[in-house]
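Re: 2-acetamido-2-deoxy-beta-D-glucopyranose structure - here you go.
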Amino acid sequence: MFSLNYCSYRNYLLLILLCSIFIYYNSLRQTKNFDVTTEISNSNRIIYAVRTGSRFYQKRLVYLLQTWIPLVNKDTFFITDKLLPNISQDHTILTEKACGSDAHSMSNLCCKTAHDFLVFHHYISEYNWFCHFDDDQYVNVNKLNEYLSTLDSNKPYYIGRTSWPNALQRSKEPFPSPFWFATLGAGVCLSKQTIHLLKPYTQTTSEFVDGCIRENYHDDIYLGFLLSAYLNITLTKTDRFHSHLEKSFYSNKQTFLRTFTNQITFGFRTPDRYPYFLPQFYRSHLDPYRMRTLHCLLYTQINECQTKIHQHLFNSTK
Ligand SMILES: *[C@@H]1O[C@H](CO)[C@@H](O)[C@H](O)[C@H]1NC(C)=O
Ligand SMILES: *[C@@H]1O[C@H](CO)[C@@H](O)[C@H](O)[C@H]1NC(C)=O
């Protein structure tokens, strides 16, 4: 018998969560052949640019390919130095020739980000929202859809999370004023109108890269600068986007469990920037960041996830 005294409050919370999920998925199971991809396709047209690189394929990208990317496959494009296994060439934007081999340098990152815009301009007529994500991010695509559908993509939007408590100070001409920028590592979304307005500054790779170098700003800071200084578009801050830089996101288990279904992006980094307190639905070497477990808790209707939840419930409460 399961006894309350026996278990800590944390485990009790987790059990309630798992039971609710179990009840929820059982109710969904009655909808035969429920398909999560059809749920997402009647969306407000979001394109996903994922920045990655061949050396991060096994370390990071594989987990995205096992979780959220299949839900938005046809709308996802990869900005990468080299071709990647299992990713079609027409969804790959190669950067090695233009940007040099991968490095975490300012000009390499700016050059890769400049390629986001080449993709965005190319597909401007097919999408309403243009989002950048890093390869260490989980995107809760349903919530992203839901959130963006509350906003008008014909207005200029710049959406993301700021990692600093204050605006960036600036006294230099042009535009000697403080401005806010969003950390690219938490994900950034731009409306169609913003992409349209950015065209003069992002039409070629060198326009963007030269701007970064001229201002001596990293890619995300330079983007914030362009939008503030040249276009007068201010950042719409959201605290539902998260990067691996955020220290507190995973440090309070109760808060995380209460709110995670509503978060839009998640960042991951070992040793402690991941939800290490979630149950292990997969062996740890197959799911080192618990990203696959998280995905299953968010998308309980996926068949594989139903199996995992079922297995977990009946093994842990026996
Ligand atoms: C590519 O996909 C196949 C099947 O979908 C899989 O067996 C294989 O391991 C994948 N390759 C890599 C390098 O991930
Ligand atoms: C910038 O936008 C704000 C409203 O968002 C407006 O009040 C202001 O006049 C604009 N400034 C310029 C220089 O266009």
